Amino acid sequence: MAVPIRPQPRTLGDSLRQNGVSRRGFLKFCAATASMMALPPSMAPAIAAALEQARRPSVIWLSFQECTGCTESLTRSFSPTVENLILDIISLDYHHTLQAAAGDAAEHAREQAMHENAGNYLVVVDGSLPGPGSNPGFSTIAGVSNLQMLQETVAGAAAVVAVGTCAAFGGLPKAAPNPSGAVAVSDIIKDKPVINVSGCPPVPMVITGVLAQYLTFGTLPELDAYNRPMAFFGQSIHDRCYRRPFYDKGLFAETFDDEGARKGWCLYRLGCKGPMTYNACATMKWNGGTSWPVESGHPCLGCSEPDFWDAGGFYNAMSVPVGDSGNVLLAAGAGGLALGVGASLLGRHKRAAAKAGHETVTADELEQKL
Amino acid sequence: MSGFSLERGLQALREEMDAPVASFFSSCVHCGLCAQACPFFVETGDPKYTPIHKLEPMRLLWEREFTLWGRLKHLVGLGRKVTDDMLAQWEPLLYDSCSMCGRCSLVCPVGNDIAYMIRKAREGMVASGHAPEGLIAASVRAVNTGSPMGLQWKTLEVQIKHVETSSGLEVPIDRQGADYLVLLSSMEIINFPEYLEAITRIFDHAGVSWTLSRQCFEATNAGIQIGSKDIAATLVQRVVDAAEALGVKNVISPECGHAYTAIRWEGPNAIGRSYPFRVFHIIEVLDQLRAEGRLRTEGKEMDRLSMHDPCNLARKSGVIDQQRHLMDLVADNFVDLKEHGKFQWCCGAGGGVSSNERAEALKMAAFKRKKAQIEEVEPERMVTMCATCRTQLEEGLEEFNMDIPVVGLTEMIADHLVEKERA
Amino acid sequence: MMSSMDFLLFTKGPLFQVAIAIFVLGILIRLVEIFALGRSRNFAEPRGGQVIPGLKTVYKRFNPDPGTFRRAPFDVVVGTVWHIGFIVALLLFIPHVEVIKATVGLAWPGLPNPVVDAVTAITLLGLIAALIHRLTHPVKRFLSTPEDYVIWAVTFLPVLTGYIAYHRLVNPYPLALGVHILTAEIFLIVLPFTKLTHIFTAVVARWFNGANFGRKGVQS
């Protein structure tokens, strides 16, 4: 039976028109992208022009030790968005969750894309992978270890985008005691640019923003110390948080149902990691700009930072130390008392010996000194 | 041959280590505020006279041998060792520039009782052979002759005769079972013979049963000043023996500061037991008589009087209000020095400084603090109740050409007694 | 290379445990060593008590006598100001309250951040003034050992780095916070082995002082 085939749009402009997105809506997206990338508004038309003409780049999406949350985040928009369309118009040649093909056919698609676009394709990775020192059998696809597949696939890529905290920093699989020996993409890939788009999951627009820049300028964005795009990760949640004035005034919610919580005060004492977390949640929000965790009354977990899973309890204030302080105190206390008693016995013995050996000072003796 | 040595000195210091000393050394933060409380620093401006610095050898020994941390430092060859040279260098600091007045102990923000430690540190100085010659001589004379000035009973006897003649009263000697055994100080007997006559008249007036003892009349204790509990014990034992021989209920220390602290506070610990009698300073006894209404006085001194509290009496023994009650009894125009009572300033001569000829210049320097205090209130006469303080005040005021006579409080009280009707 | 987050987690985790262990161990040894030396029996008839006068002295030495204030107003004012500032910032800053609550289980109300911020700024100025005083005052200069200057730095740095972290003057924040925690840990680690012990022993020293004098009828 013949299936009607939708003509493949050749450019983003075609795709947008085909999907009924207005010119006005598109320009709004371009302006928003420009502002996210800290470009002057005058750059919006340039972005629009570039995107209109952008050719569909080939993208290979590798999913390793992950939960599919990142993919969910990117695909589960409740209405078609420009972000979706960006994804639509990339040539997503391999994504084993989304693609229809399976088994050998799927792997063949990946190999074909690599061959046809050698040197030009992008590799997107979500999930961490068992490191070189670990058992490669912990995570395989079609009998190929994650490590091997990553190295093979990245060999001919233009750049790698590590999507989600697992790919960027190891994430949950790497949480102590890290049974699978999980490592981040950047721990393996040293010879290609790796862009980390961290978050658990990342804000959808951040990933599309990075792709937009690549499509627009053919360049990779400016990156921070963790190779994250500065445009999105340049400021902390705390600095952009609408509850910041309460922090500055020292007004804190102390439980989830106290007066402070109802009044929307700062969530620091409930464990908010906003001050040490760099992400765009506070400005871009989630679910189509509806809300974000802090706005819904929950402290930031710091999910876009390395080792956030091991950085102390989610509901412990950021300043609270990690570890079993109570037992350390007890042990040190017992040790201190024991050593103290021992040391003071030495001191007391010294004094007792001095007293026992006391030579009485006499006047005759003193007289010798005259 | 003298057996004094560095090791013997260190042993003596080890004997003195206790919890207060350890807590004091642990707490010093080198803030230097104790210097501001010390007349020797304030009047010379030389930082080496900072009180806590005078204890550096003792602190080093404590750290090295009485702290785990110090012992570890010692094991790896860190930290200074106390040497004989060091003790020699500290001798003038511990003796010439410290009257053990205890003012630093009262102002230290972390609460260090520095005077308490100076007293202990001197034990080490004596045993290592680093005590000043003047104090050694006084100690030897005190032990060998019964008086630090070498004064004999014969001399006192002459005084007694003189007092009896001039007062027409009997001075009781070796009276068994008297209420009070009266002690004297050699300096008083020589410089201020008025004292004996004053108490003879006061006690007669108030009907107090008292006595002198041939066995022991000397209250002062050179052992406390030089810092030897052994010498101190020998001297205190004489007082105790005399008191016990006569079976007195109380012993009265004369107008002398250190004699009082020696017998009252240090004595029982030096001999290792409590006394079967109580110890009072003469001022305490007089105030008690006043409170009981047994002192009837007439007339008042009309000139402007101020008072010097002896450190040993006020700050170091808590006798502060008594002398003021007595002043109210006989003085109409009494004005206290601005810092008085427990915050008074030392005259500069206490703690053995006056027996240490080498310290003469420092003693006079320290006196300048007292002089400044006196100048602030401009009295016509000064009153005090310690022979050492009184001598220092007289010498100092003369040195600075200040025409301010110094009187003893006991004599002043005696001068105002209502004449007894002759039967 | 250690990232700023690795560094923060190291200071918040293992190093903190090491620091409190050394601190507790060290300070207990010091205190046991002090108390174990004891006092010899006093045979002299007391004129007053020891316990109450001792406790009064513990309190009274917070307020210097008027004479000392007149003679050394700078010491008294600057010393009091920075000590109070340090304690306020240490004990009443909300994040610190959370640390103490999580570590020893005790908690108390904190102060609003702007108040602590102002107090911290004053404390920094006070500490700088105290250092200048130490370098210039003849007695302080004479008494000062290298330890005094090291301890000044050990005290100053946690305040300074706390101020920097709070105001986010250094990026990334985990680095700023990590450095602050590290300096606080250095403070804890050296405390039992230096004059910082006075934080605990001054109370003991004051009590003994008050007891010594109190027994003789003088409130020192």
UniProtKB/TrEMBL annotation, chain A:
Taxonomy of the source species: Bacteria, Pseudomonadati, Pseudomonadota, Gammaproteobacteria, Chromatiales
NADH:ubiquinone oxidoreductase-like 20kDa subunit domain span: 67-213
Keywords linked to the UniProt accession: 3Fe-4S, 4Fe-4S, Iron, Iron-sulfur, Metal-binding, Oxidoreductase, Signal
GO molecular function, one term: electron transfer activity
Binding site for [4Fe-4S] cluster 1: C67, C70, C166, C200
Cofactor: [4Fe-4S] cluster; [3Fe-4S] cluster
GO biological process assignments: anaerobic respiration
A single cellular component GO annotation: cell envelope
Family to which this protein belongs: Belongs to the [NiFe]/[NiFeSe] hydrogenase small subunit family.
Gene3D superfamilies cross-referenced by the UniProt entry: Cytochrome-c3 hydrogenase, C-terminal domain, NADH:ubiquinone oxidoreductase-like, 20kDa subunit
Reactions mediated catalytically: H2 + A = AH2
Domain Cytochrome-c3 hydrogenase C-terminal: residue ranges: 233-312
Protein name: hydrogenase (acceptor)
UniProt-listed Enzyme Commission number(s): 1.12.99.6
A Pfam family recorded for this sequence: NiFe_hyd_SSU_C
UniProtKB/TrEMBL annotation, chain B:
Domain 4Fe-4S ferredoxin-type: 18-48, 90-120
PROSITE patterns, per database record: 4FE4S_FER_1 (PS00198), 4FE4S_FER_2 (PS51379)
GO MF term list: 4 iron, 4 sulfur cluster binding; metal ion binding; oxidoreductase activity
Domain of life of the native organism: Bacteria
InterPro entries assigned to the protein according to its UniProt record, in alphabetical order: 4Fe4S_Fe-S-bd, 4Fe4S_Fe_S_CS, Cys_rich_dom, Helical_ferredxn
Pfam family for this entry, one: Fer4_8
Keywords assigned by UniProt, alphabetized: 4Fe-4S, Electron transport, Iron, Iron-sulfur, Metal-binding, Transport
Keyword Transport carried by entry: yes
Entries under SUPFAM superfamilies matching the protein: alpha-helical ferredoxin
Entries under Gene3D superfamilies matching the protein: Alpha-helical ferredoxin (1.10.1060.10)
UniProt protein name: (Fe-S)-binding protein
Organism of this sequence: Thiohalocapsa marina
Source taxonomy: Bacteria, Pseudomonadati, Pseudomonadota, Gammaproteobacteria, Chromatiales
TrEMBL record, chain C:
InterPro entries assigned to the protein according to its UniProt record, in alphabetical order: NarG-like_sf
Keyword flag RNA-binding: no
Keyword set, alphabetical order: Membrane, Transmembrane, Transmembrane helix
Top-level taxonomic group: Bacteria
Keyword Transmembrane helix in record: yes
Segments traversing the membrane: 15-37, 76-95, 115-137, 149-166, 186-208
Protein name as annotated: Nitrate reductase
Lineage, uppermost ranks: Bacteria, Pseudomonadati, Pseudomonadota, Gammaproteobacteria, Chromatiales
